[in-house]
Amino acid sequence: MTLRLRYVAGVSPAKWLRVWNERRPDLPLEAARVDQAEQLAELIAGDVDLAFVRLPIDLEGLHSIPLWEEVAVAVLPEEHALAEAETLTLADLDADPLAPVHADAAMTVELVAAGTGYAILPHGVARLHHRRDVVAVPVTDAPTTRIALVWRVARDDDDIQEFVGIVRGRTARSSRGAADDAESAPAKPNTRAKSAAARKPRRGASARTGRSVRKRGGRGR
After folding, report:
1. CATH at residue 42
2. Which residues constitute the domain of residue 11?
C-alpha cells in the first residue's frame, strides 16, 4: 500500500515527506507535482489521497486546511526600468503590456524574458521558474493566493490524519485535534514574502511612471 500525494508548483513538500518517512516507514508516500489546471483531477477520481492545491476550488466532498498565503510578484525583464524596485503597485505597471499567459508558468516567464511584457505570478511559482534574465518584485496591492491541503471526505482515515497532523506540526506523541480540525484557522503565512511586500518604499519616483517605488540594493540573483 502507498499513500499518494499531489502538489502544485510553488509548494515544496520535502520537509513533510522527510517526517513521514521517519514516522511511517511501513507506508511509502509517493508525491508528484501537477499543473494547477489538473490539481484536483486525480484526487476527485480517487487515484490519489491528498493534494496541496491553490485556492479557490470547489470544496464539495472535500476536507481542506488553508495553509499559507502567497504574495503576488511582478516578473519583469532584467533590464526593465522598474527591475530595481523593492516593491511595486499595480498602477506602477499601467504603461506596460501583460505577457501572454500560458498554463505552463515557465513559458510565461520565458515570454517575459523575451520582452513581451510583464507577468503577475504567486511568489512561489515565480521562484520555482526563476531565470537570470528576469526579476520578481512584490506587488503590494495585487490579490494574494492561498495554498491548502485537501483530501476526500470519503477517504478520511488514520493514515490521512497522520499526514494532516505532520503538516499541522503535531508530533508523533500528539493526539489528533478536535473533530473540526480540518476547518480550523489557517497556518502562519509565508512571513518572508509577506514582510518583503509590507515594507514601505522610500521617497523617490520612477522616471517612467512618476510613482514612488523603493529601490533594492541588488537584484539578489
Report:
1. 3.40.190.10
2. 3-68+145-188
Q: Which of 20-34, 54-68, 177-191 has the lowest mean pLDDT?
A: 177-191
**DSSP-based three-state secondary structure for 23:** helix
Identity at 108, one-letter amino acid code: T
Nearest 5°: the CA angle 137, 142, 148 is: 95
For residues 76 and 137, membership in a common domain is answered with yes
Q: What is the dihedral of CA 178, 182, 186, 188, to 10 degrees?
A: 70
Q: Does residue 65 contact residue 177 with C-beta atoms inside 8 Å?
A: no
Q: What is the pLDDT of residues 165-217, one digit of tens each?
A: 999 998 776 645 433 444 444 444 444 444 444 444 443 444 444 444 555 55
Q: Could you tell me if 204 and 118 lie in one domain?
A: yes
Longest CA–CA span in the chain (Å) reads 61
**Same domain flag for 49 and 93:** no
What does pTM read for this prediction? 0.74
pLDDT recorded at residue 212 = 46
